[in-house]
Write a structure and sequence with these properties.
Number of helices of chain A: 10
Shape of chain B: globular
Shape of chain A: globular
Strand content of chain A: 15-25%
CATH superfamily of chain A: Aldehyde Dehydrogenase, Chain A, domain 1
Number of helices of chain B: 15
Strand content of chain B: 15-25%
Number of strands of chain B: 18
CATH class of chain A: Alpha Beta
Strand order of the largest sheet of chain A: 7-6-5-8-9
Number of strands of chain A: 10
Oligomer: heterodimer
Order of helices and strands of chain A: EEHHHHHEEEHEHEHEHEHE
Helix content of chain A: 25-40%
Largest interface: A-B, 38 and 45 residues
Radius of gyration of chain A: 22 Å
Radius of gyration of chain B: 23 Å
CATH topology of the largest domain in chain B: Aldehyde Dehydrogenase, Chain A, domain 1
CATH architecture of chain A: 3-Layer(aba) Sandwich
Number of domains of chain B: 2
CATH class of the largest domain in chain B: Alpha Beta
Largest sheet of chain B: 7 strands, mixed
Helix content of chain B: 25-40%
Structural class of chain A: alpha/beta
Distance between the termini of chain B: 92 Å
CATH topology of chain A: Aldehyde Dehydrogenase, Chain A, domain 1
Distance between the termini of chain A: 84 Å
Largest sheet of chain A: 5 strands, parallel
Structural class of chain B: alpha/beta
């Protein structure tokens, strides 16, 4: 048996070295790392097509469990103060930076050059730092006090949409995942992320970063497995409010959009091939925010004793 | 010597209101109306259809109906106008047209108020004081955005989407047209709009106003007809943006049918708004707010406060006050300036309301109904209050879209939030309390797009409006409303 390159202690004995202790890649649900309830796994291959690791092949039930966890997470996360959310997202950046070399090793196993792998980790850290700074500015940038023509104080402020189903993009195992996840997190949403099928090891390694970054359990849930099997379950789920189809296989997209319409989900369908190295802009932040308008009467000073101020 | 005295009659008894009808002649209703395509009123290629006066159930006018071929023509005209005229035009210039339209609407306000009243069935007081002036205000507000798009936070030069297909409902025909057309034009889009088949007239008069304002041909086109024409319009390959206001069922259908097209979509759909009264609320004010919330436009309002949630200690007192107040509402001739509650827009809608109220009774709820006499002709439903409800009943779950209020009670704020949010809809809610912090906390906890604190049914073009969940997505009004008609180049 060939031991994958990604298991850093994984060189076979026989050459006198120690036999490695490769990691079992599991799911990340509700802050814990369970196996798939189905007991299924699939083999993740390295860039040369060799065996890398067994990843959990998540089931429909795992999706439902993850949505339950996400709904709980959404409450905790939306309740957190913007400053706190920013600190947590920044903490993710810190923890990822601390595992820079390990994560880069995984990217190399997946086929990247060492330089490209390190650059991808660095860009991912930067993306997280960028979004850490958004949490306490979104309402100022996207909200408003409304100059209504009546005696009311009216304001509009963004609020998280709720639980977002995210199909992580392929082709950029870490930066792609971070780029779709960071705006969902920064806007106060919880998520159920389906990792790109070949990138399970990177995705679960990133989940370990999340798990050690003060992200409340359930705020991010990461499933690995068959996107074609899991995506329709996400699209149809009544307790998922929005869907990011960035990683949806082309042949599934239209059907997923159609299914999502049954529950009037907000659906993000990227135009063209996303460039993860570009400046992120506001579009992904806007995509999973609701604008809430509140009207509060101002009354008249005469009602409170006249204009003697 | 004794004088025979009689008890003075109580002020409220025996007073009658002399009829004070507005003259229908002011509306200058024509026998027949034509769709407006490429700057001209042209014959539709379909069969004429009638539009009725819901107040009398009589035919009001006939309307030439568009066909799918006419939709093609209209979309092509809008495309041409977008590419050749409206797109290249400066924002300042576009704004000038919108300002002119706002002025034109205000100048014809009286005529439009009567026409809207006749075609829709809502009271003249509402069309005169709300629908028409607010429609004009929407054009005026959005006119000012046309040369300020770079300040919307969508990048330095956000681009319009192209041709917008817009389908609007019958409950606020002119106002919904203004909500849709004004931001679309300000952003540089051109429009093909379809009013509801039961209320096409005011939008066609708006087309006259736009033509009189010199709006270039094709910038706004009005096609007429029912759902099949609406469907042909939103699914037309030549449109870039779809904006729909109407039922959740149709919105869902549109979202499904647009899957894979990449066409931008905003949906403003149904609602089942909670109006939440705490025990410290100013009850008399709350009663007025509840009445406004559910009997404004006879409850045919997507954001109506159709579910009253009242805190137990004041439930009995509030209900007594509410029924007494609802009993004073005058139902009748929409043209009468004293009318509080007008007609239901169509017999179909009336049948739906009646069926749902019937289901409430069948499921064991108690139905209270105002005994105010209702005209014999026309389609009317007297104000109705349903108590003894359970959250599982259809009257509590389904949008009734009529003057029908359900009543539930709660003990704690958490229970109020849980009940209010226990619906797939999420458009509006009202909160009645004298405690500011509680009002703010409730506003944060309610999963709805608009919260009215100690008021209800307030609208302004400067304040974004739209829903959470199955009440749709996208906003109308304010900065967020403009974003719905522009590419995000941020």
């Amino acid at each position: 048996m060939r031991i994958g390159k990604g298991t850093t202690t994984g060189s076979a004995n026989g050459d006198g070295s120690r036999l490695g202790v490769p990691k079992t890649y599991k799911l990340y649900v509700g802050g814990a790392f369970p196996r798939s309830e189905s007991g299924r796994t699939y083999a993740v291959r390295d860039a040369d097509g060799g065996f890398w690791a067994n990843a959990a092949l998540a089931s429909r039930k795992d999706v439902r469990d993850a949505v339950v966890a996400a709904r709980k997470g959404a409450k905790a996360w939306a309740r957190a103060t913007p400053y706190n959310r920013g600190q947590v997202v920044y903490r993710i950046a810190e923890m990822l930076d601390g595992r820079r070399s390990d994560v880069a090793d995984l990217l190399v196993t997946g086929g990247a050059t060492r330089d490209a792998a390190l650059a991808e980790v660095d860009a991912s850290v930067d993306r997280l730092v960028h979004h850490a700074g958004w949490t306490d500015k979104l309402a100022a940038v996207l909200g408003s006090t409304n100059p209504v023509s009546a005696p009311y104080f009216s304001y509009s402020a963004p609020e998280p949409t709720g639980v977002v189903g995210v199909l992580a993009p392929t082709g950029s195992p870490l930066l792609g995942l971070v780029s779709v996840l960071a705006p969902v997190l920064a806007t106060g949403n919880a998520s159920v992320v389906v990792a790109a099928q070949p990138d399970a090891c990177v995705a679960i390694a990133f989940a370990e970063v999340l798990a050690t970054s003060d992200v409340p359990g359930g705020v991010v849930n990461v499933l690995t497995g068959s996107v074609a099997e899991l995506a329709p379950v996400l699209a149809a789920h009544g307790d998922i409010d929005a869907l990011d189809l960035t990683g949806a296989p082309g042949e599934l997209r239209v059907e997923l959009e159609r299914t999502a319409a049954d529950t009037i989900k907000r659906v993000l369908v990227p135009r063209g091939e996303p460039d993860w190295t570009a400046e992120p802009g506001l579009a992904r932040l806007r995509a999973f925010l609701e604008i809430k308008t509140v009207w509060h009467p101002t009354g008249a000073l005469s009602l409170s004793g006249g204009g003697g101020y | 010597m004794t004088t025979q005295t009689t008890e003075p009659a109580p002020l409220s008894a025996g007073w009658t209101y002399a009829p004070a009808p507005e003259s229908a002649a002011i509306a200058d209703v024509k026998d027949r109306y034509l769709p407006f395509v490429d700057g001209a009123f042209v014959e539709g290629r379909g069969d004429d259809f009638a539009t009725y006066n819901p107040g009398t159930a009589e035919t009001l006018a006939t309307v030439s109906q568009s066909t799918t071929d006419d939709v093609d023509t209209a979309v092509a005209a809008a495309r041409r106008a977008h590419d050749e005229v409206w797109g290249p035009m400066s924002g300042a210039e576009r704004g000038r047209y919108l300002f002119r339209i706002a002025r034109g609407l205000a100048e014809r306000a009286r005529e439009l108020a009567v026409l809207e009243c006749l075609d829709n069935g809502k009271p003249i007081r509402e069309t005169r004081d709300f629908d028409v002036p607010t429609a004009a205000q929407h054009f005026f507000y959005h006119a000012g955005w046309a040369d300020k798009l770079q300040h919307l936070g969508l990048g330095q030069a956000p681009r319009p989407l192209g041709v917008a297909a817009q389908v609007i409902p019958w409950n606020f025909p002119l106002l919904m047209a203004a909500w849709k057309i004004a931001p679309a034009l300000a952003a540089g889009n051109t429009v093909v709009i379809k009013p509801a088949e039961t209320t096409p007239l005011s939008v066609l008069v708006l087309a006259e106003v736009m033509a009189d304002a010199g709006l270039p041909p094709g910038v706004v086109n009005v096609v007429t007809g029912a759902g099949d024409i609406g469907s042909a319009l939103v699914n037309h390959a030549g449109v870039d943006k779809v904006a729909f206001t109407g039922s959740t069922a149709v919105g869902r259908e549109i979202q499904r049918s647009l899957a894979g097209t990449g066409r931008r979509l905003t949906l403003e759909l149904g609602g089942k708004g909670a109006n939440i009264v705490f025990d410290d609320a100013a009850l008399d004010q709350a009663v007025e707010g509840i009445v406004n919330g559910i009997f404004f436009n006879a409850g045919q309002v997507c954001c109506a406060g159709s579910r009253l949630l009242v805190q137990e200690p004041v439930a009995e007192e509030l209900l007594a006050k509410l029924e007494a107040r609802a009993q004073t509402l005058r139902i009748g001739d929409p043209l009468d300036k004293n009318t509080d509650v007008g007609a239901i827009n169509s017999p179909t809608q009336k049948a739906k309301i009646d069926e749902l109220v019937g289901s409430g009774a069948a499921e064991g709820a108690q139905v209270w109904r105002s005994s105010c006499p209702v005209p014999e002709r026309g389609w009317y439903v007297a104000p109705t209050i349903i108590t003894g409800t359970a959250g599982s009943m259809r009257v509590v779950r389904e949008e009734i879209f009529g003057p029908v209020l359900t009543v539930e009670t709660f003990r704690t704020p958490d229970e109020a939030v849980a009940k209010a949010n226990n619906t797939p809809y999420g458009l509006s809610a009202g909160v009645w309390t004298e405690k500011g912090s509680r009002a703010m906390a409730m506003a944060g906890a309610l999963k709805v797009g608009v919260v009215w604190d100690n008021t209800f049914n307030r609208f302004d073009p400067a304040a974004s409006f739209g829903g959470y969940g199955e009440s749709g997505f996208g906003r109308e009004g304010g900065r967020a409303g403009m974003a719905a008609y522009l590419e995000d180049a941020s």
